[in-house]
Amino acid sequence: MTLVSRIADYVRQTTLDDFDQSVVERAKGLCLSALGSMVLGSRMEVAQAMADYARALGGTPQASAIGFGMRTSTDMAAALNCISSHCTEYEDVAWPEAQYTCFLLPAAFTLGEALKASGRAVLEAVILGFEVAARPSMTTSDHGAAKRGFLSCANIGTMGAAAAAAKMMGLDADAMRDAIALAPSLGGGLVRQTGSAAHVVEAGFAARDGIMAAELARRGIGGNPTILDGPAGYFDALAGQPDIRFELGTGKDLRVMHVGQKKYPCCYLLQRIIDGLRELVSANGIGIENIARVEVEVNEAFQNIVKYDAPLDVEQARFSLPFTVAAVLAGEAMDWRTFSVEGLANPEIVKHLDRVGAVVIPGSGFEQLSKSNRIVVHLKDGSSVAITCTVAHGDAVDPLSVEENAQGFREKTSGLLSQEAIEEVIHLVGRLEFLEDVTPLVRCLEPGLAA
């Protein structure tokens, strides 16, 4: 059986009943996080520019582009909503697959609104679509793709979005296979684009193209059924993995359970560095004025991703070790306001930039998220203190609580949604599997937005 057929059969035959309740609860928490980022991100520059583009194109008003007061075609609305979610750089990520959630979760709600789908159908699509994208990415990301420059989360994410859309649309066996086979020819992403607007929009393109793949498959357009297999197949072309093997999960064994959630709106590789530096400074009672230099030990892959020593714009700042560490030294809250035009020009941050450096450990490998980062703070009196960071609070092994997740949604949407709408969304997502139609939930995200 081809990989296309295996994936298609899995998606068609697996339902919410095949998942442990812990998986369902985890997926709901990730949905709330993604929706909060979507609302916040709709006010950001890249999302606004994409919305202008969508307005110029026009389109059948099938689904809501949240935050823009417009309805457009389902695939374009999904693209906009996913781009908004990614704009904040709050998106959640599973490791080692480096698979983010922003390509899929907003898209599932967008398609759900267009289809008037149930919350159960949305949850199935979220869990299954993420599984389809994440399982092969566990091999491709750190075993060829990232080193070659390919971003598995955007590339294989298109296939996950196609699987999710095909599931929600109830495609038959042939059409499901066609959607999976077509998806590898669509979408795309490159590691070098991190810190640019292109990186932000890649997630939206994966959503748009995944939905398009399902729509085209429903009309009889598909791809080569062996496109994922063997030499010159998709996984070989992407990562040099012609013999890739992976199992798709049920029960408790689903990759959504391995998603880590960000507390700070910057690259995931910086999350534990922020936590570790704060802990180190606090535990040792270090005054910022006494710090001569901060050095962070990183692996060989780190500077391919977090690569801007002197960021020129907000997108670069989110992928800048000096800016992030300097912001911690300046006592910043490390929220979306820190990573803003105002934050970029903040003299209290700028004055610390030249105190920060990365030390690349030879032979440390090309895993995108290395096993640890050691932070050394050198003091002006010649002494130093150090900490080794392995986990950030929010990682899958130390997850955010239900209340922390809800509070994160409140913080992202404060001043954009009414308090009543905020609490209603939290309530509805909490009982998502029981909703007969997700449309009222989606509409709660729109009317209370401030002008």
Characteristics:
451 residues; alpha+beta; four-stranded mixed beta sheet; three-stranded antiparallel beta sheet; 9 strands
| Neighbour order of strands in the largest sheet | 7-6-8-9
Could you give the count of β-strands? Answer: 9
Nearest-integer average pLDDT:
96
Biggest sheet, open or closed, and with what strands and sense?
A: 4 strands, mixed
Low-confidence stretches: none
Summarize the structure.
The protein is α+β, with helices and mostly antiparallel strands and 451 residues long. Helix content is 50%, strand content 8%. The mean pLDDT is 96.
Task: Characterise this structure.
This protein is α+β, with helices and mostly antiparallel strands and 451 residues long. The protein has helices at 3-13, 21-41, 45-57, 74-87, 105-115, 119-148, 152-169, 173-182, 197-218, 234-239, 271-283, 302-305, 314-317, 321-329, 341-344, 347-350, 402-413, 419-430, 439-444, and strands spanning 63-65, 70-72, 93-94, 99-100, 259-260, 291-298, 356-360, 373-379, 384-389. Strands 7-6-8-9 form a four-stranded mixed sheet, with helices on one face. Strand 1 (63-65) and strand 2 form a beta hairpin. Helix 5 (105-115) runs antiparallel to helix 6. The chain starts with a helix and ends in a 7-residue tail after the last helix.
Topology:
Elements: H1 3-13, H2 21-41, H3 45-57, E1 63-65, E2 70-72, H4 74-87, E3 93-94, E4 99-100, H5 105-115, H6 119-148, H7 152-169, H8 173-182, H9 197-218, H10 234-239, E5 259-260, H11 271-283, E6 291-298, H12 302-305, H13 314-317, H14 321-329, H15 341-344, H16 347-350, E7 356-360, E8 373-379, E9 384-389, H17 402-413, H18 419-430, H19 439-444
Parallel strand pairs: 6-7
Antiparallel strand pairs: 1-2, 3-4, 3-5, 6-8, 8-9
Helix pairs in contact: 1-8, 2-4, 2-17, 2-18, 3-4, 4-5, 4-9, 5-6, 5-7, 6-7, 7-8, 7-9, 8-9, 11-14, 17-18
